[in-house]
Design goal:
Layout (H helix, E strand, L loop, with lengths): L14 H14 L5 E2 L11 H12 L12 H15 L8 E4 L2 H12 L5 E6 L4 H8 L3 E6 L10 H7 L4 E6 L12 H12 L5 E5 L15 H4 L7 E6 L12 E4 L2 H14 L5 H12 L3 H22 L14 E2 L20 H12 L1 E2 L1 E2 L9 E4 L4 H16 L3
Parallel strand pairs: 1-10, 3-4, 3-5, 5-6, 6-7
Antiparallel strand pairs: 2-8, 7-8, 9-12, 11-12
Bound molecules: pyridoxal-5'-phosphate.
Length: 400
């Protein structure tokens, strides 16, 4: 067989996707699996978004789209950035792609030469490092320890930047920890970036609307306007509007960078589905009450799971400000043996034992670049969370 490209050698299938796959296999055998591994809202897409897509299809909006986003979509994104982030962009400062993931992929491909470094606060979403490696770049991980609330400390950021640094990636609220940055936290990060004029910042704000206890979300270009020309602000409709399957993400940034990203976007897709764009316009421009309603449901779930975890000996969970994840520390269980006879030496052993012996799917911290932790997603029903917590409690209690 002819060989595949060398550039794929360091790129792996995501651990959360692998765990979701294992959960599906067990379910196919008739086993009742509790899936706490998927980062996907369990709510439906808002009806007005679905109706807008249907109306667009009936009206004949089914031809090739403009490559970088329809004028209506760009206008809705510009309104969103102004309304929610106090950021002003022109249409030539916006690109629409097939999900936030594709925005990041395009941005990295458009800018990274082999050997260029991308500073990634860890733990982090599994795809960042793989995307950077795909482009021949070098991911540089900067630990955001639990005792710093899983936030990026200015001194650690400063120490990670070298003459080869091309990007800093930010993702607060964070996947997998749920940590979010206050304005003061963000201002400290911005202060460092002001000192490095050759480095861009990509801020992945996909969890913007999932913050709890009156926490106020902020984004770096708004906090420090002097960075406006070096910040790519990325967002999408997947998490906020429960539109993961529609595949739409977007970004706003400086004109020249956007032109380069738009070029890559035009080469690797013929633009984003017209029907998806019609739905996303309706989501961004339509009633926003559902964001608050859903965020309050997520908060109830977060508090429930935190309460249950607090009762489990051997686990310690930091209270996250946002997203729909909890990232418990399981270091106290290292060295124990499960009821099924599995020796727990790592967080991988812990999550594998949990899924095989108690059929609860979670993801090991190692997948996100920080051990010994595991990620619980509470983007699922209270019934599932209750059952999942019961099983996790039993699993830990039975360890010797
Ligand atoms: N960024 C982060 C931090 C995520 O966790 C995810 C999905 O899990 C994405 C981006 C991908 O979003 P999209 O569905 O828009 O591609």
């Amino acid at each position: 067989m002819p060989a595949t490209a060398d550039r794929l050698k360091n790129v792996s299938i995501s651990a959360s996707a692998a765990m979701t796959q294992r959960a599906r296999e067990l379910a196919a055998q008739g086993i009742k699996v509790v899936s706490l591994s998927s980062g996907e809202p369990d709510f439906p897409t808002p009806r007005h978004a679905i109706e807008a897509a249907y109306a667009a299809a009936l009206a004949g909006d089914t031809k090739y789209p403009t490559m970088d986003g329809t004028p209506a979509m760009k206008a809705a994104i510009i309104r969103k950035f102004k309304r929610e982030n106090n950021l002003t962009y022109e249409p030539n400062q916006i690109v629409v792609s097939g999900g936030g993931k594709q925005v990041i992929f395009n941005a990295v491909l458009a800018t990274c030469n082999p050997g260029d470094e991308v500073v990634i606060p860890a733990p982090s979403w599994v795809s960042y490092a793989d995307i950077v490696k795909f482009a021949g770049g070098v991911p540089v991980s900067v630990p955001c320890p639990e005792n710093a609330g899983f936030k990026l400390r200015a001194e650690d950021l400063e120490a990670a930047i070298t003459p080869r640094t091309k990007w800093l990636f930010l993702n607060f609220p964070n996947n997998p920890t749920g940590a979010a940055c206050s304005r003061a936290d963000m201002a400290a990060i911005a202060e460092v970036m002001l000192r490095h004029p050759n480095v861009w910042t990509l801020t992945d704000d996909i969890y913007e609307h999932l913050v709890y206890d009156d926490f106020e979300f902020c984004t770096i270009a708004e906090v420090e306007p002097r960075l406006y020309d070096r910040v790519l602000t990325m967002n999408g409709v997947s998490k906020a509007y429960a539109m993961t399957g529609w595949r739409l993400g977007y970004c706003g940034g400086p004109k020249d960078l956007i032109a380069a990203i738009s070029n890559v976007n035009g080469q690797n897709s013929g633009g984003t589905s017209t029907l998806t764009q019609a739905a996303a316009v309706a989501a961004l421009d339509g009633p926003q009450d559902l964001l608050k309603e859903r965020s309050s449901i997520y908060k109830t779930r977060r508090d429930y799971v935190l309460g249950r975890l607090a009762e489990i000996q051997g686990l310690r969970a930091h209270k996250p400000e946002g997203a729909f994840y909890i990232f418990p520390n399981m270091s106290e269980l290292i060295g124990k043996t499960t009821k099924g006879g599995r020796k727990i030496e790592t967080d991988v052993d812990f999550v594998m034992g949990l899924v095989e012996e108690h059929h609860v799917a979670t993801v090991q911290g190692a997948a996100y670049g920080m051990s010994p932790y595991f990620r619980i997603s509470y983007a699922t029903s209270m019934e599932m969370l209750e059952e999942g917590c019961n099983r996790i409690a039993q699993y830990c209690k039975d360890m010797k």
